[in-house]
Amino acid sequence: MKKTFILFWGFALVQTSLLMGQVIPKKLPAQRTTLPVLIDGKLNDPAWKEAAKADDYTEFRPVIGRKEEQGNHTETFLMYNDEGIYFGGTCYERSLDSISKELKGRDGFGMNDYIGIIFDTYNDKLNGFEYFVTPLGEQWDAKMTSNTNSDNGGEDFSWNAVWQSAVVMHDKGWSFEVFLPYSAIRFSKSNVQDWGLNITRRRRKTEQQYTWNAIDPNVNGFLTQEGQWTGIKDIKPPLRLQFSPYFSVYANHFPTSQPAQKDWTHQVSGGMDVKVGLSQAFTLDATLIPDFGQVQSDNQVLNLSPFEVKFNENRTFFTEGTELFNKGNLFYSRRIGGTPIHLGKVYDDLEAGERVTKNPTESKLLNATKISGRTKNGLGIGILNAITRPQYALIENTETGQTRRFETDPTTNYNIAVLDQTFKHNSSVSFVNTSVIRGNNNYNANVSAGLFSFFDKTNTYNLAGSAAISRLNFKSAADNSTGYSHTISFAKTSGRFTFNAAQELTDTKFTSNDLGYFTNNNFINHRMYVGYRYTEPKGWYNRIFLNLNANISSLYSPIGDIKSKYQQSRVQFNFNAQTKKLIWFGLMLNFRPKENDFYEPRKTGYMYARGNSVTIGGWIESNPAKKYSYSVEAFERAFVNFYQLNGLDLYINQTYRFNSKLSVSHLLGLEPRPRSIGFTTILDDNSIVMALRKVNTINNVVNLKYSFTNKMWLTFRARHYSSVVNNKEFFTLQKDGSLESRAKLSDQLNRNVNFFNVDMVYTWQFAPGSFFNAVWKNATFHSSNLVDERYFDNLQNTLQADQNNNISVKVIYFLDYLQLKKKR
Predict the structure, then answer these.
(1) Rounded to an integer, what distance in angstroms lies between the CA atom of residue 723 and that of residue 694?
(2) Structural domains of the chain, count
(3) DSSP label at 312?
(4) Burial letters for 103-134: b for 16+ Cβ neighbours within 10 Å, e otherwise?
(5) CA distances to 303, 643, 678, 786, 789 from 724, in Å
């Protein structure tokens, strides 16, 4: 068996090496033009005759290495002048019915054919800029990172630049023109430059994807397989000074019985986002008097776990161009302007006859600034700083009417600094430091981390790791603490056969929770992954992916007098495949032996001992290019000889596209837990109560989209979340993790929680980078201890509860100094 494995591994290595040796990057000479170009999508300007032609595209999925067919082929052209880059071409189609097109708004993706150009301006094979257009003229853009072992690998479509494009459809397909001003990209000051370059085209009805420089999906990284745009001469980064002032008006209605408060409140505000080019590579972004009132509502849930719910970041400033700040997974931007650290302490400060009349649940952001960029030598630098104002709860004396304030959050400064040095062969070394400084003698927090990722010359093997130190400084030096954490991994990332082995260790004092998302410390984990992929179509399939992964987790240090350090382990097998009819499906089998949960009891020194469990599941996704498409996921977990516990996760997602302008989608998530056991309460005698309970959770989301044009669209999203907890039996948790039956407690421990939200947004992009938004948001919450599992009864009760309605209008106008200077 051992010899067979060695031979198999050796064959995979030779195969990968030969494959990589065959690929010789294409080179496209840079052509400069002095002739004018009108961006109208027609390519009839004389300047295009001087442009360098990029054709002879190669398919990389589903068939690797196949050339385009005549009539469905691609011709593209590239040139530049003193102001920017011109990219144009024609995507030929034998039949116009073969073109997949849908209006989805900027960066909306949808089921669109597209063509895009990718520049690696520093030629480091790690960082790139992407610009895409669709047959209906919509734009996408993104920053790309190629290092698969970094935390920010992939594409960041929240990054946006301002550039021009136009598309024309005709009887032979569709043609396009793109102008990228140098302000929309970052590059060095060198007199002569060579950039990494690739161009990709995707046809969604056949899921064929082509690139100008051939891509092998068995080789790690997209940017590692780029071509070259050579001999770019005498281009100068422009003065980048851009302003986006905004003006907004809000009207909010919430019923209140308090005589001092009004149902309707109004707010008028204004502010500005600023982008300043500090050098050829570095940009300062600042938001002054920020306004995030129009972002999508959070997906609130009933949290029965011992850990905090992690919400998505919807504020553009904290999502756009933040790939450097995500290094090391130490930055969770929702901490900035998040929950005040002393939110609940106000209730401990109440005196006789006092009550809390106001207690804000979010801190207010005063301003935020970030500086980011990369030098020509590959050094990436990122600095982000934000300040929040102090927050106060109001306490009223019910007898005298006097009020006083209680500070729930001090003035706080949040800072993150990143240095990221890239090297040859897709490798890098990074340093990250996060800092939270609070006023009024509150504690401060700091985390410093070093990261590395090294690939061999063939981009096949990777050694990666990190080491971090956290420091909490309190008013009393005796309370200060210093913690340590590290990761180390070795992986094979290219070839059909891949693997990864890793260790993670965090001691009892390490925490990154003040500016990161951090659930628990005190662990040492070991994990492994082995995978094999079939990427050449054969028989009934286009692609098949197989993998086996396993992990084991133990405490780093024992807790209290509990002798066992073992936490949990699992073994999982996954099978995923795409058929020739473009249907994806997969199967999963998971086994988890007995485990010791040290967090479910909510009290140090205790653990909850769970039994063995088996999970089996599968998923299927239909061809999304069809008018009606769907995806279904189902996973069933059952415990073996342990209280007959079981639970099902079922998710059904459906989409129907009436035409290129109108579509509707529906997500239904069902999580029935007929028998589960979890923490319920801690009694006055400090005994921990667990309950055998029936939990039924339903998540129901409807999305509607209508696009008037490729610059104007309307979206509607309604979500109802319902979770009902019915406690059947009660137990006292013992020190050894076992459960001892006890008398039934109050039905007041049951839960029935409902959230209902509506987000309706009208957007009009009336000029490049300039938007008019009108938003209606409705938020309703209903909670009780009455167990009612009838879904429509819960929905009706929720809709009859007090509703918070918010209507807002916001205008953002983009101003570019160079354009203003030209007009003058």
Answers:
(1) 10
(2) 1
(3) P
(4) bbbbebebbbbbbbbbbbbbbbbbbbbbbbbb
(5) 12, 20, 14, 9, 7
CA dihedral 795, 796, 801, 803 (to 10 degrees): 70
Nearest 10 degrees: Cα torsion 817, 818, 822, 824: 20
pLDDT confidence tier of residue 120, bands split at 50, 70 and 90: very high
CATH of the domain at 163: 2.60.40.1190
Spatial neighbors of 333 by CB under 8 A, at least 6 apart, are 313, 315, 318, 319, 322
What b/e readout covers 484-504, taking b as 16+ CB neighbours within 10 angstroms?
A: bbbbebebbbbbbbbbbebeb
Give 750's contacts (C-beta < 8 A, 6+ positions apart): 724, 725, 726, 727, 785, 786, 787
Do residues 368 and 383 lie in contact, with contact meaning Cβ atoms separated by under 8 Å? no
pTM: 0.90
Instruction: State whether residue 265 is helix, strand or coil.
Output: strand
- Does 121 map to a domain? yes
pLDDT digits (tens, 9 = 90+) for 259-314: 556 688 899 999 999 999 888 778 899 999 888 888 999 999 999 999 999 999 98
Is the residue at 555 inside a domain?
no
The one-letter code for the residue type at 629 is S
CB-CB contact of 113 with 99 (8 Å)? yes
Q: Which two tokens stand for residue 419?
A: 């240095």
Question: DSSP state, 49?
Answer: G
Query: What is the total residue count of the chain?
Result: 824
Q: How far is CA 483 from the centre of its chain?
A: 28
**Inside any domain, residue 168:** yes
